[in-house]
Amino acid sequence: MDADAGLVWRKQPAVGGGSFLQSQCSNCTTPDVELGTVRDVTDIHIDGLVKTFGSTRAVDGISLTVNSGEMFFLVGPSGCGKTTLLRMLAGFTTPDSGQIRFGSDDVTELAPNQRDIGMVFQGYALWPHMTVAENISFGLKMRKVAKEEIDSRVSEVIEMTGLTGMGNRKPNALSGGQQQRVALARALVIRPNLLLLDEPLSNLDAKLRIEMRREIRRICKQSGTTAIYVTHDQDEALSMSDRMAVLNAGQVQQCDTPVKSYRKPASKFVAEFLGEANLVLAELVDLDDQFAQVRLAADRPKFHVEHALTQARPGAAVPLMIRPADLHPVQVDSEIISSANSDLIPLGHARVLDTQFFGATTSLAVQGEFPLEGVLRIQTPAQGVDFIEGERVALYGSQSTMWALPQDPSS
Ligand code: ATP
Questions:
Q1: Which atom of ligand 1 is nearest to 84's Cα?
Q2: Same structural domain, 128 and 26
Q3: How many domains does the chain have?
Q4: How far is ligand 1, taken at its centre, from the CA of residue 107, in Å?
């Protein structure tokens, strides 16, 4: 555990409030160190934002509310409008229409330097001739904050970001992860209304990226900062966010918690963007608000799954989303699984195309046989049964995790 893990930089309500470095232990209720200026805690409201470049509607009527202290993610494929939305929040791009409010303040027309925003980018943009401490304190000097206050705030964020002892180093004497910590410390030291992070981990190698995911989330939560984070990496969004908006072609497809977005996607696009998804076609038999009764073919058993269907009628073909870890293969001879687990529905048979061993799990690609179609992906615990290429398997789906999706309008 980090030495500073028990510290929280807590924002107090406006009346007599402020930001405090406080011990978080349950029996400590009084602040240890008062850190300075009062700042209201604000929600961020985005209302009907539109930005067009020529014939491209980069942002096409986006409305969202980001709650105070929330770690909110904008995710989506390249060109879906993430950066344009972030630039409008920062004040670098002017919207064609719509409004941005910080709390009740309309900031849509304000210049970037009037918004009190902290920014962290992919390139760290540190000044190479300045030390870590000078890089961090620069924004406070520009704001003419008193020297004592600067010193106290800089040591606070140095400790919070795990840079203790590195204040006198120049950026070129730091690793990529440490440089990213300096960029984060520099953004947080001004106590921004909003922290914007644009693909901040893309320059780091895979192992460091995973470590920094934890660190960035810890630091944002510890400081109580409201953060909007842009990435095209779904794992980053799933593992770090409180809530996330999945964008496509300038519009929000779904805005939800990571678990709900992954388990209960609103569309095929969201299902496939957030991870591997098998989409098995079923016939809709009946529908109520929570459950869809479906079957894979006329002579196959009916079963109930939860759904995102709004307009489908009985008889319609609906895709069932089954995540690879929820599709269970059984060697045809054994078939013990059906009596052992009543949540599992027999779906049909398939032939193993290939297997890939990943240490903790094994990934299988199988070719479905009627009523299953196409290639299906399966993730099994690696210490289970070994499947071999060409082998025929029975497939079971976990009923409680299958999810019926609407057909895309285009299909
Ligand atoms: P990436 O993940 O690749 O950075 P993004 O989701 O951030 O993509 P944006 O950069 O916001 O997407 O771009 C959205 C759309 O607007 C794209 O089609 C892009 O080509 C277009 N676009 C963005 N900025 C401009 C500009 N200044 N002039 C013209 N077109 C632009």
A1: 11
A2: no
A3: 3
A4: 23
Write down the pTM of the prediction. Answer: 0.85
From the CB of residue 372, how many other CB atoms can be counted at a distance below 10 Å?
Answer: 22
Say how far apart CA 238 and CA 259 lie, in whole Å. Answer: 8
How would DSSP label each residue in 181-217?
HHHHHHHHTT--SEEEEESTTTTS-HHHHHHHHHHHH
Atom of ligand 1 nearest to the CA of 247: 6
Mean pLDDT of 14-21: 28
Residues 12 and 105 placed together within one structural domain of the fold = no
Our measurement of the distance from residue 394's CA atom to the centroid of its chain's CA atoms, rounded to an integer in Å, reads 35
384 vs 183, higher pLDDT: 183
86 CA to centre of ligand 1 in angstroms = 11
335 assigned to some structural domain: yes
In tens, the pLDDT along 208-236 reads 888 889 989 998 898 899 999 999 999 99
Q: Quick one: 105 and 253 in the same domain?
A: yes
Dihedral over Cα of 128, 129, 135, 139: its sign: negative
Please report whether residue 376 resides in a domain: yes
Residue 44, burial from CB neighbour count under 10 angstroms (0-12, 13-18, 19+): buried
Q: Which domain holds residue 223?
A: 44-263
Q: Within 6 Å (CB) of ligand 1, which residues are found?
A: 53, 56, 58, 76, 78-84, 232
- What residue's CA is closest to ligand 1, atom 10? 83
Q: Are residues 137 and 27 in the same domain?
A: no
Q: What is the CA radius of gyration of the chain?
A: 25
Let me know if residue 410 belongs to a domain: no
**What residue's CA is closest to ligand 1, atom 24?**
84
Q: How many angstroms does the Cα of residue 231 sit away from the middle of ligand 1? A: 14
Say if residues 302 and 378 touch (Cβ distance below 8 Å): no
User: Which residue's alpha carbon is at the smallest distance from atom 20 of ligand 1?
Assistant: 79
> Residue 101 falls within a domain, yes or no?
yes
